[in-house]
From TrEMBL, chain A:
Keywords: ATP-binding, Nucleotide-binding, Transport. The keyword Protein biosynthesis does not apply. SUPFAM superfamilies: P-loop containing nucleoside triphosphate hydrolases. One of its GO terms (cellular component) is plasma membrane. The lineage of its organism: Bacteria, Pseudomonadati, Pseudomonadota, Alphaproteobacteria, Rhodospirillales. Residues 4-248 form the ABC transporter domain. Coiled coil: none annotated. This is Amino acid/amide ABC transporter ATP-binding protein 1 (HAAT family). Transmembrane segments: none annotated.
From TrEMBL, chain B:
One of its GO terms (molecular function) is branched-chain amino acid transmembrane transporter activity. It is found in: Cell membrane. Keywords: Cell membrane, Membrane, Transmembrane, Transmembrane helix. GO terms for cellular component: plasma membrane. This is Amino acid/amide ABC transporter membrane protein 2 (HAAT family). PANTHER family: ABC TRANSPORTER ATP-BINDING PROTEIN, HIGH-AFFINITY BRANCHED-CHAIN AMINO ACID TRANSPORT SYSTEM PERMEASE. Its main location: membrane. InterPro entries: ABC_transp_permease, LivM-like. The chain crosses the membrane at residues 12-35, 42-64, 84-109, 116-137, 184-202, 230-252, 272-295, 307-330, 336-357. It is a multi-pass membrane protein. It comes from Aestuariispira insulae.
Automatic annotation (TrEMBL), chain C:
It is found in: Cell membrane. CDD domains: TM_PBP1_LivH_like. The chain crosses the membrane at residues 15-35, 42-61, 98-119, 131-152, 185-211, 232-253, 265-293, 305-324. One of its GO terms (molecular function) is transmembrane transporter activity. One of its GO terms (cellular component) is plasma membrane. It comes from the Bacteria. One of its GO terms (biological process) is amino acid transport. InterPro entries: ABC_transp_permease (IPR001851), BCAA_transport_permease (IPR052157). This is Amino acid/amide ABC transporter membrane protein 1 (HAAT family). Signal peptide: none annotated. Its main location: membrane. Keywords: Amino-acid transport, Cell membrane, Membrane, Transmembrane, Transmembrane helix, Transport.
Length: 251, 388, 338
């Protein structure tokens, strides 16, 4: 069953066509990689999934519900979490507080006024937050300000913030961009481990090493259109894909 | 490592704070601040700053229009005295309600934008209120003269129980206790303590954490499933109500209200108090308000004669030069000191006095540690005194 | 019809002042990215350049008043008059136009010192901190002026032949009801010239082109090996001069006092926001537009329908613009569009 289905989506900016009749079906439980050269429209497509952009025409349905015109926070409440290219975390808050925020969002909804209870005495939230920090291996740093973390650790924290919400769909926008090889491998391991939770994932990625270690299905985007789709092994030798990249990536 | 304050720490903080505020008439006296008028101002502006900090300190939204809520609170309180009763309770309740409503209205519009646009929107609304208070709203605000009490005011509730008509303007009171002098201070102090406690609870609550997260990263917030706007609006309304309450108390201790209270420089003053003490800290705003009101009082009371007295021990030419220079900063020139202070704080100590204390504390602690370590490990290498 | 035209003229006049201040404000924001709350103080400093020059020229000596013979009477006679007779009087009469020359080097120096001494250190700080530190500076400057010149407005007079009113109606063949003060017409022309000069400077000189390129894309310009920092410092000085001149010329219209800057600052910020943060044309257009709107709003016919509208019209327009079109009338997309 497909969890996310994209039908005939078009989007242009000032006459420039960024997405052209994009069709995409993301199967539940799969790890779906979207690859393509720079400017292929990958990020634009992703932004259509989270409510940052609204397609000019076409539909985006998540579990049968249209996502068009729905605000980002409502989409998150529906079960879509997102990891950014550069980790977006709350730098002025401690790691524990960082994870507590999405936990609260999951439990209390988009808005709830809990102005009188102490957050540190909310054992439900604290337990859950500590548990997830343990999962990603950041529990010793729980009381450190998140802004002082290394990039790799920030990525872990951001993943923890998404995972704590038990999302149905996790969007990963170049999760290893700008990382050292060691950090990249650590992140892949982490992603593989959370793969066991059965969360559907969409990965946008440049690094083919990452794509082939994680993905169960690959869609290739070029000039705003899906030009090829299939299992990762099939994509490796596909001439259309190689042409689209023009040797720009080591396939 | 940031040490998270526990409930017990906070209880201690509350106890110390309450004690410090209630004993202020005793310990402020040696500083020349032991009289009720000034103490009332400490408490009132402390409350104003604590409320402002809930918005600016937690969410990072810099409002340049909070004086408008102060003004609305004052006007409402005076009207409550005129129409209902000289009892301060209805004045406080109505004052907070109207300022809260007003804040809801202005906040709802202004919070559609952030950053400098938010500042300018709040500024625009405050200036509109100020201009209107001076012009078409004169029937409500009494324009330039300011809203005052009169013998012939209705005072419906009071007159229901009074046997004869008043012969003089009655004083504001709390069920018979007149709200001037020390009783007035203790009334304000009690509200400050309550207000501080509420601010403390908010800061430690999930709401407070979410507000801090909004300040830290709006983008992440949007993709975390929390709708930021009602949260910021909540903070805005709460801080507007604090400002309204402070305005009420100004009217309680001195029952008149003027439009100049709403001018944008007055908004600037509360920003300064908060920054001076320490944005985002609990004690900072109270401290900042105290420091500014204290120095305002001391400095503006100095004149050239007082200065000549201070520098009298110096030879005449030096004395005159010093008096001329310092004279710029005191008396009417107090605002010059204020502006300079503003700059110095923002440039050198953006975290305010509280950050200064923290730095001093950790410096002293490091020093003590180093001294202790130096004695045992490398016999005086780091300690010149003991080497000799 | 007459009053209609009169209101337009009034609006253009006020708008000229707004436009000039907003132009300086936008130049500074566009080049340095600094939100300068001390900008109104520059306007005030310009106005007080004119006041100082007048004071300087009219430094007086006490002489015996010969016209009074009953008792010993003294009167104050300016040194200039004492020394140069009629020529001295004429120089004094022209104190406001002379202030233009007098204020240019002073304002330039003030601008350069301000940028190098303070603003420079705040490029990388948050907008809130920029607002706060320049707000502090504005208070300091205004209080210094208050300490030097007192708290009362100090009236300035234009040269005598410009004191009266021009009978515009008669010229245009529209009856005698349309009269307008000469000096206000001069101010309008002056504002127009100064604005054109700034635009010409930015558009037709190499320096100006580099600055405009730097406003668009600072990094690229720096990669070309151009020292953009020094140029931006000079731009700050220029903005100070433009704003100061606006202040000098406004003194005969509104006697300056120490808080004239603050009054204009709030309005000019609103103007900049309406025009679009960082858009020079927007600042000028919005300045004139809001000036005209304000003077129409203060017409009795309008006030009787919407009482108080004259007091709030500018803010109201700003609120609406900010909500409907946050980047302002002519702002570039994506520039501070939060």
């Amino acid at each position: 069953m497909s969890i996310l289905s994209v039908n005939n989506v078009n989007k242009s900016f000032a006459g420039l066509k960024a997405l052209n009749q994009v069709n995409l079906e993301v199967e539940e439980g799969s790890v779906h990689a979207i690859i393509g050269p720079n400017g292929a429209g990958k990020s634009t497509l992703l932004n259509c999934f989270v409510g940052r952009l609204i397609p000019d025409t076409g539909t985006v349905n998540f579990l049968g519900q249209s996502l068009l015109g729905i605000t980002p926070h409502a989409i998150n409440q529906a079960g879509v979490a997102r990891v950014f290219q550069t980790p977006e975390i709350f730098g002025d808050l401690t790691l524990l507080e960082n994870v507590k925020i999405p936990t609260l969002a999951k439990r209390d909804g988009a808005f709830s006024l809990r102005a009188w209870s102490r957050i540190d005495q909310d054992s439900l939230v604290t337990d859950k937050a500590e548990h997830i920090l343990e999962d990603v291996g950041l529990i010793e740093k729980r009381d450190i300000l998140a802004g002082s973390l290394s990039r790799g650790d920030k990525r872990r924290l951001e993943l923890a913030m998404c995972l704590v919400q038990d999302p149905k769909l996790l969007l990963l926008d170049e999760p290893t961009a700008g990382m050292s090889r060691a950090d990249t491998n650590n992140t892949i391991d982490l992603l593989k481990r959370i793969g066991e939770r059965g969360i559907t994932k969409i990965v946008i990625e440049h690094d083919m090493h990452v794509v082939f270690s994680l993905a169960t299905k690959v869609s290739v985007l070029a000039q705003g259109t899906v030009i090829a789709e299939g299992a990762p092994e099939d994509m490796k030798g596909d001439p259309r894909v190689q042409e689209a990249y023009l040797g720009g990536a080591h396939l | 490592m940031t040490k998270q304050p526990t409930a017990r720490n906070d209880l201690l903080l509350m106890a110390v704070f309450t004690l410090a505020i209630l004993t202020m008439p005793i310990w402020a006296a040696p500083f020349g601040a032991g009289y009720p008028d000034l103490l009332q101002k400490f408490a009132i502006y402390g409350l104003f700053a604590v409320g402002f900090n809930i918005l600016f300190g937690l969410t990072g939204y810099l409002s340049f229009g909070h004086a408008a809520f102060l003004g609305v609170g004052s006007y409402t309180a005076v009207w409550s005295f005129k129409l209902l009763s000289m009892n301060v309770i209805p004045a406080v309740i109505f004052g907070m309600m109207t300022s809260g409503l007003f804040a809801l209205l202005i906040g709802y519009v202004s919070l559609r934008r952030s950053g400098i646009y938010f500042s300018i929107l709040t500024l625009a609304f405050a200036q509109m209120s100020y201009n209107l208070a001076y012009s078409v709203l004169t029937p409500i605000t009494n324009g330039e003269t300011g809203l005052q009490l009169a013998i012939g005011d209705a005072r419906i509730l009071d007159n229901m129980f009074a046997s004869e008509a008043a012969t003089a303007i009655p004083a504001t009171n709390l069920f018979g206790i007149e709200m001037s002098g020390y009783p007035g201070f203790y009334f304000c102090a009690a509200l400050l303590i309550i207000g501080f406690y509420i601010a403390l609870r908010i800061t430690r609550s999930p709401l407070g954490t979410i507000l801090k997260a909004i300040k830290s990263n709006q983008n992440r917030m949007n993709y975390t499933g929390l709708n930021t706007r009602p949260y910021t609006l909540t903070a805005f309304v709460i801080s507007g109500m604090y400002a309204g309450l402070a305005g009420c108390l100004l009217a309680v201790t001195d029952p008149l209200a003027g439009a100049e209270r709403m001018q944008w420089t007055a908004s600037g003053e509360v920003v300064l108090m908060t920054i001076l003490g320490g944005v985002g800290t609990l004690l900072g705003p109270v401290l900042g308000a105290g420091i500014i009101k204290y120095f305002e009082n001391i400095f503006s009371s100095y004149n050239d004669q007082v200065l000549h007295g201070i520098f009298a021990f110096l030879p005449d030419p030096i004395e005159n030069v010093l008096v001329a220079i310092t004279g710029l900063f005191v008396g009417d020139g107090w605002h010059l000191t204020l502006g300079a202070l503003f700059m110095v704080i923002v440039i050198f100590l953006p975290g305010g006095v509280i950050e200064g204390f923290t730095r001093l504390y950790s410096w002293v602690r490091a020093k003590v540690k180093q001294d202790a370590g130096g004695n045992s490990v490398n016999n005086g290498k780091s300690q010149p005194q003991s080497a000799e | 019809m007459d009053s209609f035209l009169l209101q337009i003229l009034n609006g253009l006049d006020k708008g000229g002042a707004y436009a000039l201040i907003a132009l300086g404000l936008t130049l500074i924001f566009g080049t340095l990215g600094v939100v300068n709350f001390a900008h109104g103080a520059l306007f005030m400093l310009g106005a007080f350049c004119a006041v100082s020059l007048q004071k300087l020229l009219t430094l007086s000596v006490k002489v015996k008043d010969e016209s009074i013979t009953f008792f010993e009477a003294y009167k104050e006679v300016p040194y200039l008059e004492q020394w140069f007779g009629q020529t001295g009087t004429t120089i004094i009469e022209y104190s406001v136009p002379l202030s233009i020359l007098f204020s240019i080097p002073i304002m330039l120096a003030i601008g350069l010192i301000m940028e190098r001494g303070l603003i420079k250190h705040f490029y990388k700080r948050t907008h809130a901190e920029q607002i706060l530190v320049t707000f502090g500076l504005a208070i300091v400057l205004q209080e210094i002026i208050k300490a030097c010149f007192g708290a009362n407005p100090i009236p300035q007079t234009p040269p005598e032949f410009l004191t009266g009113s021009a009978n515009l109606g008669a010229w245009l063949g529209m009856g005698d009801n349309l009269v307008y003060p000469w000096w206000r017409l001069v101010y309008l022309a002056f504002a127009g010239m100064l604005i054109s000069a700034v635009f010409a400077f930015l558009n037709y000189t190499t320096f100006g082109m580099v600055v405009r390129a730097g406003m668009q894309d600072r990094e690229t310009v720096e990669l070309l090996g151009i020292n953009i920092d020094r140029r931006f410092t000079i731009v700050f000085g220029l903005a100070a001069v433009v704003t100061g001149l606006a202040g000098v010329m406004y003194t005969p219209i509104l006697p300056p006092d120490y808080h004239i800057g603050m009054d204009f600052l709030v309005l000019s910020f609103v103007v900049v926001v309406v025009g679009g943060m960082g858009s020079l044309r927007g600042a000028v257009a919005a300045g004139f537009l809001l000036g005209i709107l304000q003077s129409f709003a203060s017409m009795n016919a309008v006030k009787s329908i919407l009482p108080g509208i004259d007091q709030i019209i500018i803010y109201l327009v700003a609120v609406i613009i900010l909500l409907v079109r946050p980047r302002g009338l002519m702002g570039r997309k994506g520039v501070m569009e939060a």
